[in-house]
Amino acid sequence: LNKPEWYLTQVLMWIGNHAKFLDDKIQPILDKAGSSVNAGLEFSRALVMLILEKLAADIPCLLYDDTLFCHLVDEVLLFERELYSVHGYLSSFPSCMHILSEECCFQRWLTVEKKFALQKMDSMLSSEAAWISQYKDITDVDEMKVPDCAETFMTLLLVITDRYKNLPTASRKLQFLGLQKELVDDFRIRLTQVMKEETRASLGFRYCAILNAVNYIATVLADWADNV
Question: Considering the entire predicted model, what is its pTM?
């Protein structure tokens, strides 16, 4: 249960190790018989079905262990990425994302994702470098003087997008988008609270950093909206 990478990696190895044999020996036989079946893809699909059975059995056992569940999701996402990018798996085939999209599992994923995102936000805002730009010494890169917390927050949103972008249905993706909107609003409230503490020094370093953070986040979100 605590090492899903073992069987996920094994399946990827089997797919990679058998690719040449299937292409060189099996595919010509299928082609000669006039079959439209792709031997490599069918082999991959059969192995993925085994993964789905394993996940369906394991997930109920670790659904309420945040650490194990989050680790499973991480490993499944890595598996899916390699399956599609390296082995040419088809999006029309059964995939692990269908298991993660099932109601009970999906709601748990959303909850855990939000929990860890909020913990990350607590950490980034309490950091000593929260209001300092990562590129403060490189003037041509730091025109917006973006504080580290704002840059880290936008990276967090990007990472979440990358994690849910291959979900099979638009409705599930929209639920993750709703989570991202909640996080943006939560971050806005946190910035407002810090700003209120700084009202006596409206030209102070941290006050200006907050304004730069707001400007940067608004600019990036507008840019993302234009590219949807």
Answer: 0.86
